[in-house]
């Protein structure tokens, strides 16, 4: 199954980074396409998007300053199928993408994604103190997968912190 295209542009407000595409995303060519994934609902309810978007509209979010990529490009049924070699290569490629496009914030969609990228453990939700790429803020948010046991309201509250970070009220 082919990987899905990244949506990248220079100077994004937020670059969202997932583990890897689901099989449904691989089939459709769009990020967060699994119907059980709550990503689009979370973005809207947290105030990051003005309306509820669909996975098929993922490229449209570039107009809002949001991009998408994954630490591993290969679609799988679960992140448990990702190999150590894929993570090793993905870490290097992801760092290079971040250094190239220089987003204001990189939002890691899941603590596991961030720990694989940064090599750090015991990570808290939200803004991280010391970024891997200097000058690019790193924000860790819960995975939007339907398998995550956190309540939706708790997840939305963490993403609302990201919305406040990039859209501060005057």
TrEMBL record:
Any one GO molecular function term: hydrolase activity, acting on glycosyl bonds
Matching SUPFAM superfamilies: Uracil-DNA glycosylase-like (SSF52141)
Boundaries of every Uracil-DNA glycosylase-like domain copy: 5-162
The protein's Enzyme Commission number: 3.2.2.-
EC main group: hydrolase
Gene3D superfamilies: Uracil-DNA glycosylase-like domain
Full protein name: Mismatch-specific DNA-glycosylase
Natural source organism: Laceyella putida
Lineage: Bacteria, Bacillati, Bacillota, Bacilli, Bacillales
């Amino acid at each position: 199954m082919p990987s899905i295209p990244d949506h990248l542009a220079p100077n994004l407000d937020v670059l969202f980074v997932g583990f890897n595409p689901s099989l449904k995303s691989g089939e459709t060519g769009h990020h967060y396409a699994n119907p059980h994934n709550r990503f689009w609902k979370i973005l809207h309810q947290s105030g990051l998007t003005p309306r509820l978007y669909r996975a098929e509209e993922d490229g449209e979010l570039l107009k809002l300053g949001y991009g998408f990529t994954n630490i591993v490009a290969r679609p799988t049924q679960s992140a448990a199928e990702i190999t150590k070699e894929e993570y090793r290569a993905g870490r290097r490629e992801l760092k290079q993408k971040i250094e190239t496009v220089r987003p204001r914030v990189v939002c890691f969609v899941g603590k596991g994604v961030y720990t694989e990228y940064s090599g750090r453990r015991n990570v808290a939700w939200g803004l991280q103190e010391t970024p891997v790429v200097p000058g690019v803020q790193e924000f860790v948010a819960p995975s939007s997968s339907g398998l995550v046991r956190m309540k939706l309201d708790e997840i939305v509250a963490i993403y609302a912190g990201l919305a406040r970070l990039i859209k501060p009220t005057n």
